[in-house]
């Protein structure tokens, strides 16, 4: 018995002298960065218990296995795989598994990281930078879809701002996935967006052997039209929109004006003048070659002349009708009122506009006003200085049509002058203080076919043209037709403005 007790004592002593088993190595994911990403995003995982052998670390995003590109005991660098899923990240090492406490967000659709510019007009292009772009990626500006999306790479798109877009978020969509920008895109709405262009009717094509331009005169319910190489004056009914021959004369009428119940025509061939009144056409008893009117307007503002004309040499001529219209013939007397613009580089370039109190003339890239002493003072633009600049007075720039074209103008009773800017296809407004703004048209569309509708989405082609103000505040414009036609090359358009 004593021997047995001694043996047990020795066993107990030996067991008591054995070392304790080692504690397991800590193994955990403490953090990862970034918290979201796309295919190819590099994610850094920090923690403990990782293997320094790349192959022994198995990292998964959901069920998708990532590529491990760097490893230490406390940090792993991995690349997000195409098979990744949103959710927990797991790391397996030698049969042990640890799981992140936070979720990783896998973005498998398009992503916007930036765009430039941050503001622009309809029709301009925005460069979008981001991720996951394909040939099927679409874009919307505050809900309005763009019809012009060009994929430059999987990280860049060029997108055209659509008509009707407004300020708001940009949304990209692809294969059922969408991404909304964090920043608003600002759509610039130009002043010309407050105008609406309506085509009223195509008008007969005038002969091509002259570049003097179509001219028109507005009355309360009709528009009268003349043109180069044509011996016929046409009348357009503003109610029915019908256009029909009105009068045929022996000369070539271009300048035309209307006051009260009378319509005046000026013959650029010989210099005769015609008056239509009481359904009867009167012809002047003599011709005056110096007064051949390339632009003809009522002269009531002068208090001296029945009407004014600008001749081939850009002189301003005062004309007095000595016999009431409606007689078999009429006597006219002419006076040279102003010669300041004579000798400008382009002949037949001056255009007149008159109301009951003022006379304006546009010539050689500049707008002038006729004073009571018959001198011209500059209102806007700079003589001979071509360009397209909205601004105050002499800082503004225009571009006219040159020889036998110029820029047609019209004026309302508030002395707002409307200029058909030949070089931009826009209508520019010069207010009574000389400030120039673009109120109809968009220069970037110059040279394209006119599209009736909102005024900032198109541009006119002022080939043979004129402009008039209406009693209702509207503008009437003759410009190239919006359809290809050899017989109706031009059209009359009406422009209205938002109140």
CATH class of the largest domain: Mainly Beta
Figure out the total of helices.
Answer: 1
For the record, what is the CATH homologous superfamily label of the largest domain? Answer: TolB, C-terminal domain
Task: Give me the side-by-side strand order of the main sheet.
Answer: 44-21-47-46-45
- What's the structural domain tally? 3
Q: Please tell me how large the radius of gyration is.
A: 40 Å
In CATH terms, what is the fold-level topology of the largest domain? Neuraminidase
Largest pleated sheet:
5 strands, antiparallel
Roughly how much helix do the residues carry, as a percent range? under 10%
Organism: Spirosoma profusum
Protein name: IPT/TIG domain-containing protein
Domain IPT/TIG: 28-106, 110-186
Pfam families: TIG
Outline of this structure?
This is IPT/TIG domain-containing protein. By secondary structure, the chain is mainly β. Helix content is 3%, strand content 45%.
Structural commentary:
The chain is rod-shaped. The relative contact order is 0.09. Helices cover 3% and strands 45% of the residues. With 499 residues, the protein is mostly beta strands. The strands form twelve sheets. It has a five-stranded antiparallel beta sheet with strand order 44-21-47-46-45, with no helix packed on it. A five-stranded mixed beta sheet has the order 26-27-28-29-33, with no helix packed on it. Strands 39-43-42-41-40 form a five-stranded antiparallel beta sheet, with no helix packed on it. The protein is built from one helix and 47 strands. It starts with a helix and ends with a strand. It folds into three domains: 28-106, Immunoglobulins (Immunoglobulin-like, Sandwich); 111-188, Immunoglobulins (Immunoglobulin-like); 191-497, TolB, C-terminal domain (Neuraminidase). A hairpin with a 3-residue loop joins strand 6 and strand 7 (75-79).
